[in-house]
């Protein structure tokens, strides 16, 4: 069974950092573009970042550029999202997803995890 599992979320103060992980089971991630998305209460799901299968190509939403870094370790079948200088507006459920296209559009992704909660608050 193909499965993605996010971890690493939690409560952090403004200005703090978190590293999210996206681990796959049942398939290997190295054939897929992996995207990170987030959804805050009452808001639509937003594309945050994606990384190509080799890791050579990445992209970020304007709202997180310069603060978040996506990376992958195909040997560990895991993708990471390092989040620095966190702001209260980063509060959301964060999801990872696997697809074939270089895009931040969620409709292009085929496999999804269940999400991990990130709360930025003092």
SSE inventory with pairings:
Blueprint: E1 3-7, E2 10-12, E3 18-25, E4 33-39, E5 46-51, E6 58-60, E7 68-73, E8 78-83, E9 92-99, E10 109-112, E11 116-120
Parallel strand pairs: 2-11
Antiparallel strand pairs: 1-3, 3-8, 4-5, 4-9, 5-6, 7-8, 9-10, 9-11
What would you note in describing this structure?
- This protein is mainly β.
- It is 0% helix and 50% strand.
- It contains no helices and 11 strands.
- The strands form 2 sheets. Strands 2, 4, 5, 6, 9, 10 and 11 form a 7-stranded mixed sheet that branches. A 4-stranded antiparallel sheet has the order 1-3-8-7, with no helix packed on it.
- A hairpin with a 4-residue loop joins strand 7 and strand 8 (78-83).
- The N and C termini lie far apart (40 Å).
- The mean pLDDT is 96.
Short key terms for the protein model shown above:
about 120 residues, seven-stranded mixed sheet, four-stranded antiparallel sheet, mainly beta
Q: How would you sum up this structure in a few lines?
A:
This protein has 122 residues and is mainly β.
- Give the structural class: mainly beta
Total beta strands:
11
Question: How much beta, percentage-wise?
Answer: over 45%
CA-atom Rg in angstroms? 13 Å
Shape summary:
globular
Q: What's the end-to-end separation, in Å?
A: 40 Å
The portion of residues assigned to helices is: under 10%
Q: Biggest sheet, in brief?
A: 7 strands, mixed
Low-confidence stretches: none
Structure annotation, total helices: 0
Order of helices and strands: EEEEEEEEEEE
Tell me, rounded to a whole number, the average pLDDT: 96
